[in-house]
Amino acid sequence: MTEEGHAIRVIDNLSVGTLEDLGSVINVTEMDVSDKNPLPAPQFGQCQLVRGDIIDADLALIVTKDIDIIVHLAANTGVGPSVEDPRLDCLVNVIGTFNYLEAARLNKVSRFIFASSGAPVGEAEPPIHEELAAHPVSPYGASKLAGEGYCSAYNRTFGIQTIALRFGNVYGPGSTHKSSVVAKFIKQALDNLPLEIYGDGTQTRDFIYIDDLIDAVMRSAIVNNIGGEVFQIATSKETTVQEMTEQLCGVLAERGIRDVVILNRKTRLGDVKRNYSDTSKAQKYLGWTVRFQLEEGLDETVSYFLTKQR
After folding, report:
1. What is residue 1's predicted lDDT score, i.e. its pLDDT?
2. How far apart are CA 263 and CA 197, in angstroms?
3. Extended strands (E) in the chain
């Protein structure tokens, strides 16, 4: 973003990411707000990092001052963790989102981009689209639906241009901390561990490469007249977990990582059977289309993990 003359302020508790991760892609300055002194306005080309948690409402007011756009990516992610601790999932995903919408209102931030998911829809005949009624299966889906609801309310009541992006299954470089299926399987394969598929592998997902997702976020920040909208951000392609695993094993084999063991485990609570998206609305209003096919994206991702391992 800084190449286009923007300034960035990041708020992160670094529970999964690291300062080194951020510093590998942008020149970052860590800011101390422990004494609650006002932060200096970020300058063009600068990235400020503030360590903190989104459930801290006072901190939200401090870090959103002098900001034009909030991109809210922080969350308790995944179905599994939400089933294990639904109260924490609610606290982080609902109250955390509310804190930053309220900070946007009080600090007059004009636009708020919310990272949502297909999980609010729950079990539905795919492809998933924005007009389907929401019936979340997991606590994670419920918390993301609550976030979408608050975005709609703050758009209609307070005039904040909120945009909810329902991400597909995101993968790609920079995901060493993630527990989602692609990152997890690559880490397990590199550690000579078996890959565990929950269920028989016929469950389907819509896998989207990180560069395509970033493009959608960037477009959401600049396209006019999209306040209050929800967009499916995925590839419009249905891929079984078994198919993805076979493609991944092929990419790994090309790099000498062969004889990967695949095990099938019991289906997890809260998982949906089929999920992929109709992205025609995003194509129409954001002018956005995907560029990376799954095999190409897996190749880039495996290369990244191997480089990190070395």
Report:
1. 41
2. 6
3. 8-12, 28-31, 47-51, 69-72, 111-117, 161-167, 169-171, 195-198, 204-205, 207-209, 229-233, 239-240, 262-265
Asked if residues 252 and 302 have their Cβ atoms less than 8 Å apart, the reply is yes
* Rounded Cα–Cα distance for residues 246 and 253 (Å): 10
Catalytic residue (one of 140, 171, 209, 276): 140
Q: Which of 69, 281, 232 is nearest to 160 (CA)?
A: 69
Apex 218 CA angle, 215 and 224, nearest 5 = 125
State the Cα–Cα distance between residues 40 and 43, nearest whole angstrom.
9
Is residue 171 part of the annotated active site? The answer reads no
Instruction: Note the pLDDT tens digit of each residue in 62-102.
Output: 999 989 999 999 999 888 899 999 999 999 999 999 999 99
pLDDT in tens, 191-213: 999 999 999 999 999 999 999 99
Per-residue CA distances from 172 to 30, 157, 213 (Å):
26, 37, 10
Q: Is the pLDDT reported for residue 292 higher than 70?
A: yes
